[in-house]
Write a structure and sequence with these properties.
Blueprint lengths: L5 H11 L5 H10 L3 H6 L2 H6 L4 H6 L3 H16 L3 E5 L7 H4 L7 E6 L9 E5 L6 H15 L4 E4 L5 H11 L4 E4 L13 H9 L3 E4 L13 H11 L3 E4 L7 H11 L3 E4 L7 H11 L3 E2 L3 H5 L12 H4 L14 H9 L6 H8 L3 H13 L3 E4 L3 E4 L1
Parallel strand pairs: 3-4, 3-7, 4-5, 5-6, 7-8, 8-9
Antiparallel strand pairs: 1-2, 2-6, 10-11
Length: 376
């Protein structure tokens, strides 16, 4: 799995090299045939090829990077992980065509998932509402049964829901992490992490092994560019104006990908990012066909979901016994903890706790990770 050619080893060594811009690494990869050629090159050789003396200085100890590369390959061989370099014939073509493609992509699972005929990135907020969940429940089964592979970022909320739908429908899914691919970033994500791999999908990253130093906030935009780069199009379901989902959408536009956005309520913060994208030219999604018709292999009239049944996203409010119960139910349109509900209603803590328990037993609200509650 990890038997690499000399050119692939060079790509991996460049990927591991620090202090050099990725654009310069791409140029070096074009002009040198193997790692040893860089070690033997003089300053004049670098200058003759159009590189600066600073670039030359960055490669003075490249022999150490070669050693690190070989050590990493041995470690990979002892694991279930693999690596695809940009010089490999198996490297995803969609990602390879992007300007800022990673020189190496580490994977856990079946890399064939990366070569799917049609792929859709599904992204959105971690704090999704029932509306966002219902959109995915309505649309994704139709998308998945067309053999379209879903790509997302394995974060809470919309990302996780998209991956769960894929696994539930025995469809391929690709998760892109901002850390290593040997384990999930959070303990709570390990279940879906393993399910993606066990169902024939794949987890990918620029990093092979989990490390705290690989978890800085600045790495999430790097993750997002891979999410969009692996995809034919990007669907944003729910997102605030300032969110990682909108960063993914921006990358998608730069990479000449289609961007879809699900319209939402003007009063909801989670809708404003999608509405802004639509205002800026993203395609508003009113039916699943709005997405399918832009993806490879689509045939008009192939999907009849919204011809026979409406999207039906208008939520039916349950009949509740008191105004306070209705207030609590409406508050839980967004995830709420008990302290927030007590502070908002200014009622006794024991009364609120009892009503929350009642609403949960009736199936009107549900508890979510973090001890919060969300209306159903």
């Amino acid at each position: 799995m990890n038997s690499l050619s000399s050119k692939e080893r060079l790509a991996l060594a460049l990927h591991l090299t620090r202090g050099v811009r990725r654009s310069a690494k791409h140029e070096i990869l074009k002009k040198f045939s193997d790692a040893e050629q860089i070690v033997a090159a003089s300053l004049d050789d670098f200058l003759a090829l159009g590189f600066t003396d600073k670039i030359f200085d960055a490669f003075r100890e490249f022999s150490k990077t070669i050693d690190q590369t070989e050590a990493l390959l041995k470690k990979l061989e002892q694991s279930t992980l693999g690596v695809l370099t940009i010089t490999s014939s198996h490297y995803p073509a969609r990602l390879k065509e992007t300007v800022d493609a990673p020189l190496a992509l580490f994977f856990n699972g079946d890399p064939q998932a990366l070569l799917s005929g049609s792929t859709l990135a599904v992204v959105g907020t971690r704090q999704c509402t029932n509306y966002g969940e219902r959109v995915l429940q309505k649309m994704l089964p139709v998308i998945l049964e067309r053999g379209i592979c879903v790509v997302s970022g394995l974060a809470y909320g919309i990302d996780t829901l998209a991956h769960q739908q894929s696994v539930r429908h025995q469809a391929l899914s690709v998760a892109v992490q901002a850390c290593g691919v040997d384990q999930a970033n959070l303990i709570q994500q390990r279940s879906i992490f393993n399910e993606i791999i066990n169902s024939g999908g794949c987890v990918v990253s620029e990093f092979p092994f989990y490390s705290r130093q690989h978890m800085g906030r600045g790495l999430f935009p790097r993750r997002n560019r891979i999410v969009s780069g692996l995809s034919d199009a990007v669907l944003v379901v729910e997102a605030p104006v300032k969110s990682g989902a909108l960063i993914t959408a921006r990358f998608a536009l730069e990479q000449n990908r289609d961007v879809f956005a699900v319209p939402g309520n003007l009063e909801q913060t989670n809708s404003m990012g999608c509405l802004k994208l639509i205002q800026e030219g993203a395609k508003a999604v009113l039916s699943v066909d709005d997405i399918l018709e832009e993806l490879p292999g689509y045939q008009k009239g192939q999907s009849s979901l919204f011809e026979d049944q409406p999207l039906n996203l208008i939520k039916k409010i349950p009949e509740l016994e008191s105004d306070l119960e209705e207030t609590l139910y409406q508050l839980c349109e967004k995830p709420r903890v008990l302290d927030e509900m007590i502070a908002h209603t200014q009622c006794d803590a024991s009364e609120i706790s009892a009503l929350v328990t009642k609403l949960e037993m009736l199936g009107h609200i549900k508890q979510i990770p973090g001890k919060g509650y969300l209306s159903v």
